[in-house]
Design brief:
four-stranded mixed beta sheet; three-stranded antiparallel beta sheet; 8 helices; 13 strands; globular
Protein backbone atom coordinates (compact mmCIF):
# COMPACT_ATOMS: atom_id res chain seq x y z
CA UNK A 1 0.00 0.00 0.00
CA UNK A 2 1.43 3.35 -1.06
CA UNK A 3 1.40 6.06 1.58
CA UNK A 4 -0.37 9.31 0.79
CA UNK A 5 2.31 11.94 0.06
CA UNK A 6 2.64 15.04 2.16
CA UNK A 7 1.60 15.80 5.69
CA UNK A 8 -2.14 15.53 5.98
CA UNK A 9 -4.67 17.07 8.34
CA UNK A 10 -4.04 14.55 11.11
CA UNK A 11 -0.35 15.40 11.02
CA UNK A 12 -0.81 19.16 10.78
CA UNK A 13 -3.27 19.37 13.64
CA UNK A 14 -0.55 18.73 16.20
CA UNK A 15 1.41 21.69 14.84
CA UNK A 16 -1.50 24.11 15.05
CA UNK A 17 -2.21 25.54 18.50
CA UNK A 18 -5.87 25.20 19.48
CA UNK A 19 -6.44 28.95 20.00
CA UNK A 20 -5.34 29.62 16.40
CA UNK A 21 -8.68 28.44 15.01
CA UNK A 22 -10.67 30.93 17.08
CA UNK A 23 -8.13 33.69 16.50
CA UNK A 24 -8.26 33.03 12.76
CA UNK A 25 -12.03 33.39 12.71
CA UNK A 26 -11.93 36.48 14.93
CA UNK A 27 -9.38 38.05 12.59
CA UNK A 28 -11.54 37.38 9.53
CA UNK A 29 -14.56 38.83 11.34
CA UNK A 30 -12.68 42.00 12.21
CA UNK A 31 -11.81 42.60 8.53
CA UNK A 32 -15.04 41.39 6.88
CA UNK A 33 -18.02 43.76 6.87
CA UNK A 34 -20.40 40.86 6.24
CA UNK A 35 -19.09 38.75 9.12
CA UNK A 36 -18.93 41.75 11.46
CA UNK A 37 -22.32 43.31 10.71
CA UNK A 38 -24.69 40.61 9.47
CA UNK A 39 -26.57 38.04 11.53
CA UNK A 40 -24.64 34.78 11.86
CA UNK A 41 -26.36 31.46 12.53
CA UNK A 42 -24.80 28.02 13.02
CA UNK A 43 -25.64 25.53 10.30
CA UNK A 44 -25.18 21.92 11.43
CA UNK A 45 -25.44 20.33 7.97
CA UNK A 46 -24.55 21.06 4.36
CA UNK A 47 -28.04 22.45 3.76
CA UNK A 48 -30.30 23.94 6.40
CA UNK A 49 -33.83 25.30 6.05
CA UNK A 50 -35.09 28.15 8.21
CA UNK A 51 -38.62 29.53 8.52
CA UNK A 52 -38.68 33.16 7.43
CA UNK A 53 -41.56 35.51 8.19
CA UNK A 54 -43.23 36.61 4.93
CA UNK A 55 -46.24 38.53 6.21
CA UNK A 56 -47.23 40.40 9.36
CA UNK A 57 -50.51 40.02 11.30
CA UNK A 58 -53.08 42.79 10.96
CA UNK A 59 -55.30 44.30 13.66
CA UNK A 60 -58.84 45.57 12.98
CA UNK A 61 -61.29 48.02 14.57
CA UNK A 62 -64.67 46.71 15.69
CA UNK A 63 -67.72 48.63 14.48
CA UNK A 64 -69.69 47.75 17.60
CA UNK A 65 -69.54 45.77 20.81
CA UNK A 66 -70.98 42.69 19.09
CA UNK A 67 -69.32 42.85 15.67
CA UNK A 68 -67.09 40.00 14.60
CA UNK A 69 -63.32 40.25 14.88
CA UNK A 70 -61.71 39.48 11.50
CA UNK A 71 -59.01 36.83 11.39
CA UNK A 72 -55.52 37.31 10.09
CA UNK A 73 -52.59 35.06 9.37
CA UNK A 74 -48.86 35.07 9.82
CA UNK A 75 -47.16 33.61 6.77
CA UNK A 76 -43.94 31.68 7.28
CA UNK A 77 -41.99 30.25 4.37
CA UNK A 78 -38.89 28.08 4.39
CA UNK A 79 -35.67 29.51 3.06
CA UNK A 80 -32.60 27.35 2.62
CA UNK A 81 -28.98 28.14 3.40
CA UNK A 82 -26.65 25.90 1.45
CA UNK A 83 -23.04 25.81 2.57
CA UNK A 84 -20.08 25.99 0.25
CA UNK A 85 -16.42 25.62 1.05
CA UNK A 86 -14.11 28.60 1.24
CA UNK A 87 -10.43 27.74 1.09
CA UNK A 88 -7.09 29.51 1.10
CA UNK A 89 -3.56 28.20 0.57
CA UNK A 90 -0.49 29.89 2.04
CA UNK A 91 2.91 28.66 0.76
CA UNK A 92 5.65 28.83 3.41
CA UNK A 93 9.41 28.37 2.78
CA UNK A 94 10.82 25.55 4.88
CA UNK A 95 13.57 27.81 6.21
CA UNK A 96 10.94 30.05 7.78
CA UNK A 97 9.43 27.06 9.55
CA UNK A 98 12.85 25.79 10.63
CA UNK A 99 13.96 29.14 11.98
CA UNK A 100 10.73 29.65 13.89
CA UNK A 101 10.38 26.04 15.10
CA UNK A 102 6.76 26.09 13.85
CA UNK A 103 6.06 29.29 15.74
CA UNK A 104 4.85 30.89 12.51
CA UNK A 105 1.20 31.51 13.31
CA UNK A 106 1.70 35.14 14.18
CA UNK A 107 2.88 35.66 10.58
CA UNK A 108 0.53 33.31 8.77
CA UNK A 109 -2.72 33.95 10.66
CA UNK A 110 -3.22 37.57 9.47
CA UNK A 111 -2.71 36.50 5.85
CA UNK A 112 -5.29 33.73 6.21
CA UNK A 113 -7.78 36.01 7.94
CA UNK A 114 -7.42 38.72 5.29
CA UNK A 115 -7.80 36.27 2.42
CA UNK A 116 -10.99 34.81 3.88
CA UNK A 117 -12.45 38.21 4.76
CA UNK A 118 -11.77 39.51 1.26
CA UNK A 119 -13.37 36.47 -0.40
CA UNK A 120 -16.47 36.62 1.82
CA UNK A 121 -17.12 40.33 1.26
CA UNK A 122 -16.42 40.10 -2.48
CA UNK A 123 -19.00 37.30 -2.82
CA UNK A 124 -21.66 38.76 -0.50
CA UNK A 125 -21.55 42.36 -1.68
CA UNK A 126 -20.48 42.05 -5.32
CA UNK A 127 -20.96 38.41 -6.33
CA UNK A 128 -17.26 38.08 -7.19
CA UNK A 129 -16.26 34.41 -7.05
CA UNK A 130 -19.58 33.50 -5.40
CA UNK A 131 -20.89 29.95 -5.84
CA UNK A 132 -23.76 29.67 -8.31
CA UNK A 133 -26.33 28.74 -5.64
CA UNK A 134 -25.68 31.85 -3.57
CA UNK A 135 -28.41 34.51 -3.85
CA UNK A 136 -27.79 37.61 -5.96
CA UNK A 137 -25.15 39.76 -4.32
CA UNK A 138 -26.14 43.00 -2.61
CA UNK A 139 -24.85 45.55 -5.14
CA UNK A 140 -26.26 43.81 -8.26
CA UNK A 141 -29.59 43.20 -6.47
CA UNK A 142 -29.88 46.81 -5.30
CA UNK A 143 -28.98 48.08 -8.77
CA UNK A 144 -31.58 45.83 -10.42
CA UNK A 145 -34.20 47.09 -7.95
CA UNK A 146 -33.39 50.71 -8.77
CA UNK A 147 -32.19 51.38 -5.23
CA UNK A 148 -29.28 53.62 -6.19
CA UNK A 149 -28.42 57.24 -5.56
CA UNK A 150 -25.89 59.18 -7.60
CA UNK A 151 -23.41 61.40 -5.77
CA UNK A 152 -24.78 64.68 -7.11
CA UNK A 153 -25.70 66.99 -4.22
CA UNK A 154 -23.88 70.34 -4.18
CA UNK A 155 -22.32 71.71 -1.02
CA UNK A 156 -25.24 74.10 -0.55
CA UNK A 157 -27.59 71.10 -0.63
CA UNK A 158 -25.60 69.11 1.91
CA UNK A 159 -23.08 67.48 -0.42
CA UNK A 160 -22.26 63.85 0.16
CA UNK A 161 -24.09 63.97 3.48
CA UNK A 162 -27.33 64.61 1.57
CA UNK A 163 -26.48 61.88 -0.94
CA UNK A 164 -26.11 59.44 1.94
CA UNK A 165 -29.35 60.69 3.44
CA UNK A 166 -31.17 60.01 0.17
CA UNK A 167 -29.59 56.55 -0.06
CA UNK A 168 -30.89 55.85 3.44
CA UNK A 169 -34.29 57.12 2.31
CA UNK A 170 -34.38 54.43 -0.39
CA UNK A 171 -33.96 51.75 2.27
CA UNK A 172 -36.61 53.38 4.45
CA UNK A 173 -39.05 53.69 1.53
CA UNK A 174 -38.99 49.89 1.22
CA UNK A 175 -39.97 49.57 4.87
CA UNK A 176 -36.56 48.82 6.36
CA UNK A 177 -34.32 50.63 8.82
CA UNK A 178 -30.79 51.54 7.72
CA UNK A 179 -28.36 50.12 10.26
CA UNK A 180 -24.94 50.10 8.60
CA UNK A 181 -22.67 51.43 5.87
CA UNK A 182 -19.96 49.84 3.77
CA UNK A 183 -17.42 51.91 1.83
CA UNK A 184 -14.15 51.34 0.01
CA UNK A 185 -11.16 52.62 1.92
CA UNK A 186 -10.63 55.22 -0.80
CA UNK A 187 -13.85 56.94 0.28
CA UNK A 188 -12.47 57.80 3.73
CA UNK A 189 -10.90 61.04 2.54
CA UNK A 190 -14.08 62.10 0.75
CA UNK A 191 -16.15 61.53 3.87
CA UNK A 192 -13.63 63.31 6.10
CA UNK A 193 -13.29 66.22 3.71
CA UNK A 194 -16.99 66.86 3.05
CA UNK A 195 -17.65 70.57 3.71
CA UNK A 196 -20.62 72.87 3.33
CA UNK A 197 -20.45 76.30 1.73
CA UNK A 198 -19.60 77.71 5.15
CA UNK A 199 -16.55 75.45 5.42
CA UNK A 200 -18.04 73.38 8.23
CA UNK A 201 -17.63 69.61 8.18
CA UNK A 202 -20.72 67.76 6.99
CA UNK A 203 -19.76 64.38 8.43
CA UNK A 204 -17.75 63.17 11.40
CA UNK A 205 -16.48 59.67 10.75
CA UNK A 206 -13.73 59.67 13.37
CA UNK A 207 -15.51 56.94 15.36
CA UNK A 208 -16.39 54.91 12.23
CA UNK A 209 -20.05 55.86 12.35
CA UNK A 210 -22.47 58.05 10.41
CA UNK A 211 -25.73 59.16 12.01
CA UNK A 212 -24.88 56.78 14.83
CA UNK A 213 -24.72 53.79 12.44
CA UNK A 214 -21.55 51.69 12.12
CA UNK A 215 -19.32 52.16 9.09
CA UNK A 216 -17.14 49.37 7.68
CA UNK A 217 -14.47 49.79 5.02
CA UNK A 218 -13.60 47.22 2.40
CA UNK A 219 -10.08 46.11 1.66
CA UNK A 220 -8.12 47.59 -1.22
CA UNK A 221 -8.68 45.99 -4.61
CA UNK A 222 -12.16 44.67 -3.83
CA UNK A 223 -14.07 47.69 -5.17
CA UNK A 224 -14.03 48.42 -8.88
CA UNK A 225 -13.72 52.03 -9.98
CA UNK A 226 -15.76 53.99 -12.50
CA UNK A 227 -18.80 56.24 -12.65
CA UNK A 228 -21.24 53.31 -12.77
CA UNK A 229 -19.78 51.38 -9.84
CA UNK A 230 -20.84 51.51 -6.21
CA UNK A 231 -19.01 54.02 -4.01
CA UNK A 232 -20.81 52.95 -0.86
CA UNK A 233 -23.62 50.78 0.45
CA UNK A 234 -26.27 51.42 3.09
CA UNK A 235 -28.35 48.51 4.32
CA UNK A 236 -30.56 47.05 7.02
CA UNK A 237 -28.07 44.53 8.32
CA UNK A 238 -30.74 42.55 10.22
CA UNK A 239 -32.11 41.29 6.87
CA UNK A 240 -28.96 39.39 5.91
CA UNK A 241 -28.08 36.00 7.35
CA UNK A 242 -24.79 34.14 7.07
CA UNK A 243 -24.85 30.43 7.80
CA UNK A 244 -21.59 29.12 9.24
CA UNK A 245 -20.08 25.82 10.19
CA UNK A 246 -17.88 26.25 13.22
CA UNK A 247 -15.26 23.79 12.04
CA UNK A 248 -12.13 25.05 10.28
CA UNK A 249 -9.89 22.38 8.82
CA UNK A 250 -6.14 22.51 8.16
CA UNK A 251 -4.03 20.50 5.74
CA UNK A 252 -0.28 20.80 5.35
CA UNK A 253 1.58 19.54 2.29
CA UNK A 254 5.25 19.43 1.32
CA UNK A 255 4.90 17.86 -2.12
CA UNK A 256 1.98 19.57 -3.86
CA UNK A 257 2.21 21.71 -6.96
CA UNK A 258 0.23 24.96 -6.87
CA UNK A 259 -1.15 26.43 -10.09
CA UNK A 260 -2.89 29.68 -10.95
CA UNK A 261 -6.29 29.85 -12.68
CA UNK A 262 -4.61 29.48 -16.10
CA UNK A 263 -2.74 26.33 -15.12
CA UNK A 264 0.64 27.98 -14.73
CA UNK A 265 2.82 26.55 -11.97
CA UNK A 266 3.28 29.01 -9.12
CA UNK A 267 5.06 26.76 -6.64
CA UNK A 268 6.50 23.28 -6.80
CA UNK A 269 6.77 22.70 -3.07
CA UNK A 270 9.17 19.75 -3.15
CA UNK A 271 11.50 21.33 -5.68
CA UNK A 272 11.45 24.78 -4.04
CA UNK A 273 11.87 23.43 -0.52
CA UNK A 274 8.55 24.81 0.70
CA UNK A 275 5.36 23.68 2.35
CA UNK A 276 1.80 24.95 1.96
CA UNK A 277 -0.91 25.29 4.53
CA UNK A 278 -4.50 24.97 3.27
CA UNK A 279 -7.32 26.23 5.47
CA UNK A 280 -10.98 25.61 4.68
CA UNK A 281 -14.25 26.74 6.22
CA UNK A 282 -17.86 26.44 5.11
CA UNK A 283 -20.49 29.14 4.94
CA UNK A 284 -23.60 30.11 3.03
Amino acid sequence: TMAIPGILRSDASSLIPEPVVQMLFEGATAESAALAQFLRVPVPAQRQTFPVLQGLPAAFWKDSDTSLIPTTKIDWQNRAIELRELAVIVPIPNVVVADSQFDIWGQVRPMLSSAMARAIDAAVFFGIGAPAMFPTAIVPAATAAGNTRSRTAAAAQGGIAEDLNQAMALVEADGYSPSGFFFPTAQKSRLRGARGTDGQKLLDVADNSIEGLPVAYGMAGMWTTGTDNAEGIVYDRTKFVLGLRNDISFELSKEATIHDANGNVLYNLFQQDMMALKVTMRMG
